[in-house]
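Reader question, answered in our methods column.
A reader sent in the components of a multi-part assembly and asked whether the whole thing could be modeled at once rather than chain by chain. We filled in our standard form and ran it. Here is what they sent:
COMPLEX SIZE: three components
ENTRIES:
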Amino acid sequence: MNYWLIKSEPFKYSWSTFVKDQITFWDGVRNYQARNNLREMRVGEMCLFYHSNEDKQVVGIAEIVKEFYQDPTTEDPNWVVVDVKPVNTLLKPVTLNQIKSDPRLNNIGMIKQPRLSVIKITQLEFNTILELSNEN
DNA sequence: GCCAACGTTGGC
DNA sequence: GCCAACGTTGGC
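And here is the structure of the entire assembly that came back:
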C-alpha cells in the first residue's frame, strides 16, 4: 500500500471544487516521474491533497478510485490520468512551514523535489501530516 | 551522448 | 514579480 501527495494550484483546481465534483480525473501531468507515479497508484490508496502557490498547505485526503488510463485531454499515449475522490477535509490544514519544521518529514519527497506534482510518501509521513492536522 | 539554452514550477 | 531548481530540447 502506497501513500501519495498530489499538488494543485488552488486557482486551477481547488479542494473545494474537488469536493463539489466528488470525483475527478487527475489530468495535466506532463512529467515522466509524476506519470510513473500515476501508473503505480492502485484503487484504495490514499493521497494528500496539497495546494501550491498561494496556499502552500495540505488541505484534504483523497482516494484513488480508478487506476491509470489514457489522458482524455491529449492524444499522446505518454500521458495518463487516474480517478480520485475526496475522502476527508483536514480539520486544520497543514502548512508547508509545519512540514519543513517537523524532523520526521525531513525526507519527504515534496521538499526534496518541490516541482514534482505527484509524489510518493511513506506511511509515516502520511500519518505525521494527519497528526499535525489534529494537533492545532 | 553531452551540454547549453530554454521553459516551467513554485517558494519567497 | 523575481529567481532558483530542475526537466526538456536541440545542436554538435
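What stands out: The CA atoms of residues 48 and 61 of chain A lie 5 Å apart. The longest strand of chain A covers residues 80-95.
Send us your own complexes using the same form.
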